[in-house]
Amino acid sequence: MDALLQGRTERLFTAAEDFILSLLCTFGDWYNSSGQAERLGRQFALTNTSRTAMELFVQEWQVFLPPRHVRVLQICPILGFLAVFLTTPIILARILSRAHLRQQTRYLLLANALLSDLLFVAFYMLTTCLNAATVLMSDLACAAMLFLMGIFYSGGIFSATAIVLDTSLAILAPLRYATLWPVSRTYAAVLTIWVISVFFPAASVGLFLWYHTMSPCTQHICSLPLVLVLTVSHSKPLQVCMLLTVTAVLITLLLVVFGYVLLYYHTSKSGVWRGERSSRAKGTFFVHYLNLFLSVCPMLLLVIKLLLYSYSSELHPSVGLWVSLILCNILLVLPKALAPYLYGLRYRDLRGALLDFFGLNRPRAITPVM
What we know:
It holds the Pfam family 7tm_1. The protein is mostly helical. It has helices at 2-33, 36-46, 53-64, 75-97, 99-102, 105-132, 139-172, 177-180, 183-199, 202-213, 224-231, 236-269, 278-311, 317-331, 334-346, 348-357.
């Protein structure tokens, strides 16, 4: 028994040592490439301090590490996954099990968007748990995780764009809608979305692999916030590639917003926003605009962050890590966690299944007429 406990203790200490060495190795790459070593070296030469260069390095490393309460942010992806996992499977089962829902384009595109969001949040939660468990990854394994998250995030964005196109055709050309967008073309559109989503993050992940081939670290902490702070911030090609990719996503989202504004302008002339029908129409547009607003905000913040990396070298890594943690763990996950509730409770065909699952759909008592 004592030998077994001793063996487990040794393995635990070995894993902790590997994790700390990987942190130091990753930070050392940033430390050397960012010019901090030269700056502190000159400071060390000009002053009569008794601290060695290693002590200065450790001091910078302690400043770089976030406070302990920052780890609370790691709970946000787990909570987001639980919120999505409770509702998205119910909505998907409802859509796929009803023949009349499978024949409607909007429900197929909604199912594709919710499936993409579920997979994205699941993989991001997995990387968060692996980081909390001090699990290290090779370059190829980390790149594969980032590539899959990029595919699923892009799939959700492009599915939202397809939903706007479908709604636009249904409102602007109601008589020709069945001819222009039949169900058979919906399946082709879903396949096209996944194909485009595969190629969309490929360039950024390829540059990530190229950057780490020159690194002495054999294993890394596969954390998206740390990748943004320590890798993207000091690789000009990766900055340009990610800036182009994020800008394309942002333009897509802005086109979606413009599409809904155009629909609002068109429907306001037909009297949809007046009378009893206005409340439901306003609620539907509010759901779409809220989801789009929550999706646009992290992309805008990421563009600003990449521009700061490109034109400013004075941004301290602790500030960059704070911004990256809030961006990735909260702003990216929040719209994915709210989407199934917003859309599921909005559509009548899906609302009943969610209310039945949570036990909120109480049957109404019918009083017989005498």
